[in-house]
Specification:
Layout (H helix, E strand, L loop, with lengths): L6 H11 L6 E4 H6 L4 H7 L4 E6 L19 H10 L6 E3 L11 H20 L7
Parallel strand pairs: 1-2, 2-3
């Protein structure tokens, strides 16, 4: 199976198998790197997403792209997740050995702050602060 299987292709497969056990763990960076628009792809997966990888990417490059330096439309992608009622895990995918800043911990903290900001901007009062 192609590692960048589009959600639209997945949707056709899901309908063919018609199994509640066949679900989707999508990766917004992989979708964008493969030329797909993550918000549209995630909308197709409504009701079938179990988790989502959050990372940035460049065309054909899925590892080591610093957040904000790639092509993933983060605000639109998070908005699409909210529109479909997604409340599952969001996992930030990063590679410390590829960090060019010399401070991978600071890079991770900045990524966490970006995701926090996107969550607050998108879901706002629906989030409980801990």
């Amino acid at each position: 199976m192609d590692a960048f299987l589009a959600t639209l292709d997945w949707d056709n497969s899901h309908q063919a198998f018609n199994s509640p056990w066949l679900q989707l763990y999508s990766d917004m960076g992989n979708l964008a790197a493969a030329g797909y628009y993550p918000p549209d792809e995630l909308r197709v997966a409504r009701g079938h997403l179990v988790a989502v990888h959050v990372k940035d990417a460049q065309p054909g490059v899925v590892r080591g792209v610093p957040f904000g330096e790639g092509i993933v439309p983060f605000p639109e992608t998070f908005k699409a997740l909210a529109e479909i009622g997604f409340w599952g895990p969001l996992t930030v995918e990063m590679w410390a050995q590829m960090d060019e800043t010399g401070d991978p911990l600071a890079t991770v903290i900045a990524a966490r702050e970006l995701v926090d900001r996107l969550l607050i901007e998108t879901w706002g009062s629906q989030l409980s602060r801990r």
